[in-house]
Amino acid sequence: MTERNPEGGTQVADTVIAPHVEAPVNPTGEAADAVRAAARKKALITGIGFILVGLYALWAFGFGTSGGEDAVFGMTVPNRDTTHVGDLSLPARGVAIAMSVVCMIAGGLRIAFDRSRLATRLSIALFLIAFVIAFLVWAVAGKQMSFAGALQNTLLAAVPLVLGALAGVIGERSGVVNIAIDGQFLFGAFAAALTGSVTGSLWAGLAAGAVAGALIGALLAVFAVRYLVEQVVLGVVINLLVTGITGFLYTQLLQKDPEQYNNPGVFDNIRIPGFADIPVIGPVLFDVNVIVYLMYALIVIVHLGLFHTRWGLRARAVGEHPTAADTVGIKVNATRYRNVIMAGAIAGVGGAFLTIGTVGTFSKDMTSGAGYIALAAVIFGRWRPLGAVAAALLFGFTSALATSLQPLNTSIPSQFLQMMPYVVTIFAVAGLVGKVRAPAAANKPYTKG
Amino acid sequence: MKLELRGITKRFGSLVANDHIDLTVEPGEIHCLLGENGAGKSTLMNVLYGLYEPTEGEIVVDGTPRKFRTAGDAIDAGIGMVHQHFMLVPVFTVAENVMLGHEETKPMGWLDRRRARKKVLDLVDEYGLKVDPDMLVEDLPVGLQQRVEILKALVRDAKVLILDEPTAVLTPQETEELFRVMRALRESGHSIVFITHKLKEVKAVADRITVIRRGKVVGTADPASSEKELASLMVGRPVKLVVDKTEAEPGAVRLEINDLTVLDGNGQAVVDRVDLRLREGEILGIAGVDGNGQSELTQAILGLRAPAAGSISLDGKDLAGMSPRQILGSGVGFVPEDRQHDGIVSDFTVAENLVLDMVTQAPFGKRGSIVPSAVRDNARERVEEFDIRTQTIESPAGTLSGGNQQKVVVARELSRPLRLFIASQPTRGVDVGAMEFIHKRIVAERDVGTPVIIVSTELDEVVALADRIAVMYRGRIVDIVPPTTSRGDLGLLMAGVLPGAEHADGAGATRADTAPAGPVEAKTNESDATPGEEDPA
Q: SUPFAM superfamilies of this UniProt entry (chain B) (predicted)?
């Protein structure tokens, strides 16, 4: 009476079809052909897509640039560079044509080597890089753009995204989907600005940002873990809640007396001698403030922690197969609480960066959806900390480009440039990620028995 | 270690799952717990493993009473459990799964993978449990996954191992291999509690047998007792272990499946170029270890999955492209493998469940609304005819026992004129009494001329019911053989190995000669096929 029926038995069913017997059943047949044909078709479609985009680039960027014009890229960060690398001047038309051709070659490679994973990845990377260069030389032709400045903006835009994505990775790996990253950002930014202003200490502000993020994390955890609320809905609701609270307090408090309540200041940059002297990237990466260094450390810690420590092994077990974790004595829900709250603190630091790390003041709804982009980075990065970091950098780069290109008066409407990060997000998540596997128990509350 | 259960009682509300159960497991014995599905075996073991707290009674380990509040307590007391559904993280390696919750660490919680690997390898050597510690669990066949579960228990110094229905997912050869490991563990002083309802296995491996029925110990038996004795002890009355049926009289071909291929979400072929011909008045049994494409095959016939290639035609009519409702409407009866998910709506009444797929037609539906009187009349008839034990026809179907729920599904599907009847795991989780009845009905359906497909992972059931047996392995039909084929050969087929050299063309050919007089190569293949002998390099 009390024994349960197999509940779908997916685990067993999924794993039975495993290679262990050299069976006389010939596996290379129509079915295998069908699988290969599907892969081939996909390669063909993307490859042709690459070639078409390359042709477009050739027409629009290559032949759209008048000969003789140079695109000049500044390679030094203003006021911060001691390396004095000269500007890079490229013949716009020639480079744009060359890069468009490279795009098409990448498409050809994608089709030719449809079965090698490495070749697939390389061809996609090659295509993206060539396309971006072709686009840039066209947009900058006859003008000047600070490339080092764009890199710097990339980093600045990416810091909160990276921290938010790390928070997302920890949460989802433990089985809790964290849509509330945006709320954690906003609350962290708000708390950091307010506390920093009131106490006059940026460090207190930073701590307050982390605590604020952790609070939102705790809220998420209580409802998701204890009350089994649907986590996506819950996250969205929490974001709305935070938007409301911070908006209200902003108009009631911060806006009324900005000197007193919204004037925390910004962390000073710390220059690391030696590293900061590396040409181009040195000043970008190693002449930054303490939150960015904290981010570097967190990337390493979260990556190593997740894959090489007991904490990470248990967190992942809880996110993949909570029942299995429970039967070996791991406290599933306690683990989830701890990790979600900790992740919230990390996202809170990301939020603090928005105020006391860059602009120095809080403004209403200042995250403008950055939390959702961080969430996209989690998925694009395949739930791996380093992947998420790379994705966050890509998103940061697109938004930096938008910022850098805007003053150049290119023929692209500025609204379109501002759309770019979001468009890239959509394409990244929908198209390039391919089939990925989320942690099996993400968004699934655990109840015993 | 000596383990005693004294007067264990477990109640869930008014339901008594275990009623004053006494059980003693001596060191170094294989103690078999025999009982039907729902007899309370698993509840008892969950009590023992700290997953449930007993309402009454105590657990005594080596003379000291112990209380297990969590699985961790039971592990500490030296009890290990291999669950029916494996408790393994599929994306972890074998070593990671074994060490989870019991990690070897260096300072700062850093995992010591080397030491973990070594521990696994030591145990592998000691008990002959060959498995590669670096493989991902999801890439392992089920038999090896089970070994990982056993390793997990051993690495925690378990002295008593509970194996909960361990053979349900194994081929006969893998089962033999498991028995070998169990004996090796017994030799080294471990005790094993082996839970099962399969009589053959009990006789093969048990030192002592305790039989449980309806939550009570009804007796102990000797492994030398006959299967018949064990069965009647288990069920509480004399049982017929064979299905009464006459020779099939196959007529014209009714169902034709040509070259059917079904892909899963990852583009893997789960049904791989299957050809089948099914004739009027015959039962085709589909045998195979769970997860080799049987479910997907039936789903494709029902229109629940779109085939990637191939055709399915019933009485000359192409079923491809038709919706499940149209297919049901054209006279296909279907008993799904997972009745609670797909067979019934638990919150609907028995009466409603008995007309689920017929409400759009007269007499149950009229001008877009249901005719309650017709539904009630039908329910009374079916409940009577199929001996469905329910308080009233208005009780929610979810309150019925598993066997009676299954009778509801079978009654519904057999209560209209059929052109094809498909039953997946028709008696999974059903008591022996209901099983006899369901089998009788299936044979009766055949005798009126309906072509019948039975999918079952229980070899006994397939052999008892089928007129021809198609064995599936990794999506392919390896061979179609008569039910008189030896179990050894069927087991080999289930592992994808042809016992003889000749290969059936799969087009409905029934092989007369199935004597295992195959060439020596096939025999070598057999030992290769047994996961235990697989070199984990």
A: P-loop containing nucleoside triphosphate hydrolases
Band (B501; pLDDT cuts 50, 70, 90): very low
CB contact under 8 A, A17 and B102: no
**Which helix H or strand E contains A104, and what residues bound it?**
helix A92-112
* The domain defined by A151-429 carries CATH number 1.10.12: no
Q: What is the least distance, in Å, from the CA of A305 to any CA of chain B?
A: 8
Strand partners of residue B10:
B18
**Tell me, what's the pLDDT at A6?**
39
Q: What's the first-to-final CA gap in chain B, in angstroms?
A: 36
Give the ipTM: 0.80
Give pTM, 2 decimals. Answer: 0.75
Q: State the average pLDDT over residues A21-33.
A: 46
Give the number of other CB atoms < 10 A from CB of residue A31: 24
For the stretch B286-302, pLDDT in tens is 998 888 889 899 999 99
- What is the residue type of A106? A
In the numeric block, the tokens 């004129």 are attached to B417
Q: How do the residues of chain A divide into helix, strand and coil, expressed in percent and rounded to 5?
A: 70, 5, 25
Beginning with the edge strand found earlier in the chain, give each strand of the sheet holding B468-473 in spatial order: B332-335, B420-424, B452-455, B283-287, B468-473, B476-481
Regarding predicted confidence, which is higher, A96 or B237? A96
Please provide the DSSP assignment of B10-27 as one string: EEETTEEEEEEEEEEE-T
CA distance B34 to B203: 11
Q: Do A329 and B528 touch (CB under 8 A)?
A: no
Answer whether B469's CB lies under 8 Å from B453's CB.
no
CA of A323, closest CA in chain B: separation in Å? Answer: 7
Give the 3-state secondary structure of residue B291: coil
Name chain B contacts of A313, Cβ cutoff 8 Å: 92, 96, 99-100, 103, 111
Q: Please name the residue of chain A whose CA is at the shortest distance from the CA of residue B500.
A: A24
Q: Judged by CB atoms within 8 Å, which residues 298-357 of A form the interface with B?
A: 308-311, 313-314, 316-317, 320-321, 323-330
B-chain CB neighbours of A20 within 8 Å are 140-141, 144, 529, 531, 534
Write the pLDDT tens digit of every residue in A227-285. Answer: 999 999 999 999 999 999 999 999 999 999 888 999 899 999 998 888 888 888 888 88
- β-strand partners of B151: none
What is chain A's mean pLDDT, rounded?
85
pLDDT attached to residue A1: 38
Distance (Å, rounded) from C-alpha A449 to C-alpha B16?
17
B479: left (phi over 0), alpha (psi -120 to 50) or beta: beta
Cβ of B40 and A1 within 8 Å?
Answer: yes
pLDDT at residue B516 is higher than 60 = no
**pLDDT score of B149:** 92
Reading across the β-sheet that carries B64-66, which strands appear in turn?
Answer: B15-25, B3-12, B56-61, B64-66
Domain ranges of chain A: 6-142, 151-429
Q: How many other C-beta atoms are found inside a 10 Å radius of the C-beta of residue A320?
A: 23
Q: Residues 12 to 51 of A: which have CB under 8 A from any B CB?
A: 12-25, 27, 29-32, 34-35, 38-39
> With bands split at pLDDT 50, 70 and 90, how would you rate the model's confidence at A129?
confident
**CB of B25 closer than 8 Å to CB of B46:** no
What residue ranges define each of the domains in chain B, with the CATH number in brackets? Answer: 3-235 (3.40.50.300), 252-495 (3.40.50.300)
Bridge-based pairing of strands B283-287 and B365-366 is unpaired
| Facing residue for A313 by CB, picked from B49, B96, B341 | B96
| Angstrom distance (rounded) from CA A439 to CA A169 | 10
Partners of residue A34 in chain B, C-beta under 8 Å: 261, 263, 267, 269, 308-309
Nearest by CB to residue B105, choosing from A17, A27, A310, is A310
